[in-house]
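Quick start: read one record
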Amino acid sequence: MTLGTPTSVDLPDEAPAGYRDLRGHLAALRDRGLLQVVDREVNKDTQLHPLVRWQYRGGVPEDQWKAFLFTNVVDSRGRSYANPVLVGGLAGSPEVYATGLQCEVGEIGARWAQAMAHPIDPVLVESGPVTENVFTEVDFGDLRHTLDAIPIPISTPGFDNAPYLTSAQVF
């Protein structure tokens, strides 16, 4: 397996203070040694989740658990996806979670208490750095307009009959 620096995801050289986006968070994970990048072709239907699950069930100590970024994702039908897939990048371990909150593991509870005591009101803006794509009709001849266009992994190959989204964050 070839592991290295992301080829299809541009990350800042250093994690910015106060992450502006997911790339900043990924840079912080990388800087802390908490991001395992897999550039090798990985099948989302049969390999992706079992590779990640291996760290949890294969005896890797919790203080060594990492987030995984797969940059070369394919499916069982031979299709390639332009989108990388991040697994365990928000809460894959206490260290990963603390990195997202920009604190130490022992400070997580206090960080949450502070946030709950001082909520931030939402701000409606006219535009932002991302766009929203809304499909009102599904053309099964053009899979770019279905959920099949997103590289959703199969969590338990051989048991799940399809990919599922459970508590997903899609960016």
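Confidence is low (pLDDT under 50) at residues 1-7.
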